[in-house]
Amino acid sequence: MIRQQLSQKLLQKLSPQQIQLMKLLQVPSVSLEQRIKEELEGNPALEEHDTYESASDTPAEDKQEEPEKEKEEDYDLDEYLNDYIEEDPVSYHYSEPQGEQRDKSLPAVVANTFHDYLEQQLGLLNLDSEVHRIIAQQIIGSIDDSGYMRREIPSLIDDILFAYNIEVTAKQVQEVLSMIQRFDPPGIGARDLRETLIIQLQQRLQLAENMGDHELIPELKLGILILTKHFEAFSKKHFLRLQRQLEIDEEMLKGALDEILKLNPKPASGYTSQFDTQTQTIIPDFLVTNRDGILELTMDVRNAPDLRINDQYIDMLRSYQAKKDKPSIQRESKEAIIFIKQKIDSAKWFIDAIKQRQNTLKQTMYAIMQFQKEFFLTGDSTKLKPMILRDIAEITGLDISTVSRVASSKFVQTEFGTKRLKDFFSESIVNTEGEEVSTQEVKSILGEIISKEHKRKPLSDEKLRLMLEKKGYSIARRTVAKYREQLNIPVARLRKEL
User: Fold this and answer.
1) For the chain, where do the domains classified as CATH 1.10.10.60 start and end?
2) CA 126 to centroid of chain Cα atoms
3) Closest CA to 116 of 273, 266, 229
4) How many CB atoms lie within 10 A of CB 250?
5) Could you tell me how far CA 76 lies from the centroid of its own chain?
6) How far is CA 14 from its chain centroid?
7) DSSP letters along 311-329, please?
8) Is the preceding peptide bond at 185 cis, omega within 30 degrees of 0?
9) Confidence bin at 2 (pLDDT 50/70/90)
């Protein structure tokens, strides 16, 4: 049986302004400029202002809810215009706080990319035909930023057939690939780690033979043999097994392994252009300075230009007000004013969101700086106090989700290097003296213990647990393993050296 009934429900619903603010909070400062440009392009009522003017002392009304659509018969044009003109939307603007204005320009970088470098070397090859050149260009386009060719040969053949309507063979592709694998940097165009190491050793062996370096040649040949026939034992560091299988002593094995360890597992990382450096640069959102024991916090605001409402839009409102008594244009005036109102509202909401973003970021970072004051003064990671999102949320009065968005992709520059904000957050554990300490402190001590271990007999996770326990940190072995993995430190077997 179908029945209709009325019911009331209390729901929490985010307004468009709140959603916009949350999205802006997650945007790093380096990407904020692009986001503002997108808004400027999409909203003609918003403009960038070149001069710094003080904001109106009386803030305009902050509209937190979507305006309801008014019925045409209840529409009062005169009252509508007066409200907007009295509020003076032109006074709505965002400008940098005084004392934080910096040079907003970033140096333009013009440089060849890594793939351009490979294309230049391609021009030096004596290729038999245009088909071979197409194959070479397809291979170079399939090489990633680490220097590996990530496409299988059958897939490359299909790509060439689809793009150029040319049928090539696996033998032709392999021939051209072998040529490219002789390019600089050594090891380029390999399909896995094993192949790139073998290519690099073969090139070094050829150079040693040409130079007549008879001491180095046996070690290089042994290294190639290990990588070709015994790569699994090498990767797992089964040194005794290698000695038995190859019938060599420890000194010979150590010489070959030393030559292998000199190789570059990511051959493209050896080529660094200005362009590559620029794209990998981290621009901090905050700067913390120690002034004789007093911490000063500064925000990087160079990517947030001054914004304001376009002057022409208030003039348009006044113009339509003057024409409101003419019945012939009454309907057109209403439609135009509705459009203007929507654009002005959108611009005001965006400016408010930018202001609130800057205030929220500064408020959150200031709370973190005060909470972790000892670290910012000394740079000692063992001075980091246990701190979770709730701690900062309670200090600032912000929601935990807001603090999380601020910390997720922001960086702070200190005297001790640039740090990610989320790295200041950590859980706490209780030491043997009953005191709460940060897990960051435990990780720091764990890393120090491992750095001082005997490399021929690295410490197992159980032994690391016992050593931490002696220092007053009682944690489980699986927790030691988790912290070790978070520090990107391999297991004991893979840390073993001769």
Assistant:
1) 428-495
2) 41
3) 273
4) 12
5) 51
6) 28
7) HHHHHHHHHHHHTTT-GGG
8) yes
9) confident
Question: Could you identify the residue written with the tokens 């970088």?
Answer: 109
Q: Mind listing the pLDDT tens digit for each residue in 77-108?
A: 455 555 555 555 555 656 655 545 444 444 44
Token reading at 52: 């710094």
What is the distance between the alpha carbons of residues 329 and 323, in angstroms, rounded to a whole number?
Answer: 8
Burial of 171 (0-12, 13-18, 19+ CB in 10 A): exposed
Phi and psi torsions of 286, nearest 5°: -135, 155
Q: Find all residues with CB under 8 Å of 328, minimum gap 6, and list them.
A: none
Q: Give the H or E element holding residue 18.
A: helix 16-26
pTM over 0.85: no
Q: Indicate if the pLDDT at residue 159 is higher than 50.
A: yes
Give the torsion sign (CA, 422, 428, 429, 430).
Answer: positive
Percent share of the chain, pLDDT over 90: 4
Whether the CB-CB separation of 428 and 442 falls below 8 Å is answered with: no
Length, in residues, of the chain? 498
pLDDT of residue 199: 92
Quote the CA–CA distance of 132 and 173 in Å, as a whole number. 8
CA 431 to mean position of chain CA atoms? 35
Residue keyed to tokens 């040319």: 166
In this predicted model, what pLDDT tens digit does every residue of 404-421 receive, in sequence order?
888 877 888 888 888 888
Select, from the ranges 53-67, 230-244, 343-357, the one with the highest average predicted confidence (pLDDT).
230-244
Give me 224's structure tokens: 């190639």
Beta bridge partners of 299: 286
What the block records as the tokens of 287 is 């700067």
Class of domain 428-495: mainly alpha
413 close to 453: Cβ distance less than 8 angstroms: no
Question: Mind spelling out the 3-state secondary structure of 404-422?
Answer: HHHHHCCEEEECCEEEEHH
Angle at alpha carbon of residue 158, lines to 152 and 164, rounded to 5°: 130
Q: Are 436 and 428 in contact (CB under 8 A)?
A: yes
